[in-house]
Amino acid sequence: MEVGGSSKKMIATQAEMVEARVPLPYRDQCAHLLIPLNKCRQAELYLPWKCENERHSYEKCEYELVMERMLKMQKIREEEAKLKQQKKKQPLPLIPNTATAS
After folding, report:
1. Domain, as residue range, for 69
2. What is the pLDDT of residue 64?
3. Is 33 within a domain?
4. Per the domain annotation, does 55 fall within a domain?
5. Distance from CA of residue 16 to its chain's centroid?
6. Looking at the domain assignment, is residue 71 inside a domain?
7. Ordered DSSP codes for the chain
8. From CA 92, how far away is CA 15, in angstroms rounded?
9. CA 47 to mean position of chain CA atoms
10. Residue 21, CA atoms < 13 Å, CB-side half-sphere
């Protein structure tokens, strides 16, 4: 399954996420890492020093997604700033288009 706007592909299917009871806000491109993390957490009674490898890989995946979104937003802002600059540089027409329309 391909998700628009991201370079990462969805690995976990909807059925797997439903079966693992992954909450809707967490069903992103890192859900395939969240499923084993949650299973480990339940097995280890949510002890913070357990499941460190699973948690690290999940948090790294989430971090990469956030950074990717930030870079895309930065590019969008830069493009908008360029367009604004171009509009400011264009001279105003002496005769407006509405005056010459017949």
Report:
1. 14-76
2. 96
3. yes
4. yes
5. 21
6. yes
7. ---TT-SSPP-S-HHHHHHTT--GGG-STTHHHHHHHHHHHHHTTT-TTSSHHHHHHHHHHHHHHHHHHHHHHHHHHHHHHHHHHHHHHSPPPSS-HHHH--
8. 58
9. 29
10. 3
Q: What is the pLDDT of residues 34-86, one digit of tens each?
A: 999 999 999 999 999 999 999 999 999 999 999 999 999 999 999 999 998 88
d(CA 53, CA 46): 14
**Domains identified in the chain, total number:** 1
Query: What is the value of pTM for the model shown?
Result: 0.78
Question: Six-digit token pair at 101?
Answer: 């329309």
Q: Apex CA 52: angle with CA 46 and CA 24, to 5°?
A: 65
Residue 24 in any domain: the answer is yes
pLDDT in tens, 84-100: 888 887 776 677 677 55
Best CA proximity match to 30, nearest among 51, 54, 49, 52: 54
